Amino acid sequence: MRKSRTVAGILLALAALALFVAGPIMVAEGVHGQNQVRTQLTNQKITFPAKGDKSLPANLQSYGGQTVITGPQAKAYADMVEVHVRETTGGKTYSEVSAAWMAGGMKDATLAQQRQTAFMGESLRASLMSAYQAWELSWLVIGLGVLLFGLSVVFGATAWAIRPQRVRVPESPEVLQHQELTTS
Transmembrane residues, as ranges (predicted)? Predict the structure, then answer.
């Protein structure tokens, strides 16, 4: 029993140590990921239209005038781009407009312009959604890092609690009797 508790305690302590190291590293990497997304979005200098501007959909008015620097802002801007692309193409996707343009012998200038707008808009939307996904994933990494650190504390406390207790055997029975008298 004592040997199994010792082995279990050592294994728990090692797991605690590994989690104690891994948790903060994951938090740091998650924060680093968010900083990269923020830097890249900031460098693009994307700004929402001003509040009240008719090009800004009603559900996105709270973003009016803001510069896109976070994942949620990137998603909101991507949603706005999608609205504008759908308005321009009559609700059709790039592939639908492109198919119609090719079916018409690639001569319709209006379809050619809609095709170009749809391509650019959907490409921008995809890039912004990638930034949003990276932002959300970085939050997941931060959360997992905090969880791992918390588990390291639990594992460490458990290892401490199950450690074998040292028992002192007195040199003689007289010493034991003397200890009982002095502690009473």
Answer: 137-162
Structure token pair of residue 42? 């900031």
The pTM of this model reads 0.78
76's enclosing H/E stretch is helix 71-89
Per residue of the chain (184 residues), give pLDDT as tens. Answer: 668 878 888 999 999 999 999 999 999 999 999 999 999 999 999 999 999 998 899 999 999 999 999 999 999 999 999 999 999 999 999 999 999 999 989 898 999 999 999 999 999 999 999 999 999 999 999 999 999 999 999 999 999 998 877 777 777 777 766 666 566 5
Q: Return the domain boundaries, the chain.
A: 2-183
List of residues 6+ apart from 154 with CB closer than 8 A: none
Q: Provide the b/e sequence for 34-71 (b: ≥16 CB within 10 Å).
A: beebbeebeebebebbeeeeeebeeebeebeebebbbb
Instruction: Give the DSSP H or E segment for 123.
Output: helix 109-161
